[in-house]
Amino acid sequence: MIQMSFASLVETPADAWVFGFLGDDLIIGHDGLLPPAGALGTLPQASSFGIADADGRACIAQQWPADTVLPAGLGVTSLRAAYEHLPPPLYRLATRAKLLNTWDRQHRYCGACGTATELLAHEAARRCPACGLVAYPRLSPAVMVLIHRGDDILLARSPHFKPGVYSALAGFVEAGEDAEECIHREVMEEVGVSVGNLRWFSSQSWPFPHSLMLAFHADYAGGDIRPQPGEIEDALWVSKQALREGRADVLLPSPVSIAHRLIHHALD
Ligand SMILES: [Zn+2]
Questions:
Q1: Residue 7 has what pLDDT?
Q2: pLDDT value at 224 more than 80
Q3: How far is the C-alpha of 133 from the C-alpha of 109, rounded, in Å?
Q4: Which of 220, 169, 179, 176 has the alpha carbon at shortest distance from 200?
Q5: Which domains, and CATH codes, for the chain?
Q6: pLDDT tens, residue by residue, 4-19
Q7: Which residues surround ligand 1, an ion (CB under 5 A)?
């Protein structure tokens, strides 16, 4: 049972789960798992706060600059790669630690008046002592949508995807926009088609660097695929039957992403 919490001043008990980061990378032991709390004890003083209680064990987020030298036996991994090794509850806590570390590092000064901010004791918030502005951890909602047309689904690739990988469409929610409006706009911008019958699927914290993914299915309503230059390298209709039988000429996204679950939900 995991209970989210926040505490700015914490001791690190010997049995704590420590989610330590060097820059954006998670510190791990040689087995790919979280190191014992004591293994990080020789590092210089770091920012450190409590982020949860997992079955009575304290969970601590810590971070050091990316060029910090680690003790022997420890290494780092990207948070995406850590998905392969950490059990799901610990992986989710690692994403929470990364989000809080990023926020803590990027809100040292007040955005309104420039004064150094102070961490509150029992709430994830940094407050300006001069003007009172409070900065909370940043979350940026983004939508993901898988478009269905009969037995086909629309998959697309962005230029920064690994070669051969195709996924559902995704984009950030604009200020003043709701998730549904965002889907209609993004789909029209990215591939030039219209959609209807939006169906909620699921959501996922995606700390790269601070997104909250909101995933939907939708039905094709009209238009021909017209990939947006610079954003979409290729987009195409792919047969679900061909995907199920391994005959489709595309690679699907890694299991770490909600896109993987969304596409497989359509295939099941
Ligand atoms: Zn201020």
A1: 92
A2: yes
A3: 10
A4: 179
A5: 2-106 (3.90.79.20), 140-267 (3.90.79.10)
A6: 999 987 778 888 999 9
A7: 110, 112-113, 115, 128, 130-131, 133
